[in-house]
Please model this.
Amino acid sequence: MEKNKSKPPYLKRIFAGKNVYIFAMVALAFAFLNIYRLNDPLEVGSTAPELVLQASNGESFTMNEILSPKVVIFYKKHTYFSNYIINTTYKRALPAFKILQDKGIAQVIVIAQGYDNTEELNNLIWEDDYSNYKDIIFTTDTKAAGKKYGIRSWPHLYVISSDNRVIYETKIGSADKVQQILWRD
Model:
């Protein structure tokens, strides 16, 4: 019976010695991850910053040159460290967004994180999964673009009017919702 009295309570054992350091490191890692994932997106109604985009054929243009509404998707291809569900959701939605462009409803601009030049972009496009989207995937300085648009955690979606106003922004967007928004605008 005295043996039980000498044992520290359960919580004291967990937070004793080296365990305290482990818990502190885990808490710090989660805090850093949370800060990293926080976005500070442009507000609806604000003017969309200018981006210089480059197509897979090397042709450059600016977003302001596009006079129609724009759907800008900051896309992140799935990697080991990325969110599989969100990235897969966007990958599955690319055909629906491409239809919006094919119907003339909006110009779709997909900016893939980490593909900052035409060589990298062409490597992505010629993969089987992306070969049908060469007319909507563009390259730019993705770090600068993310900073201008307040995106630290990719993916993200903006709908921009023909006069370059942000009319919608979201972390996870659908082509149906975007189409409804564009018809209202």
Observations:
- Strands lie at 52-54, 60-62, 70-75, 107-112, 137-138, 156-160, 166-170.
- The chain has a mean pLDDT of 83.
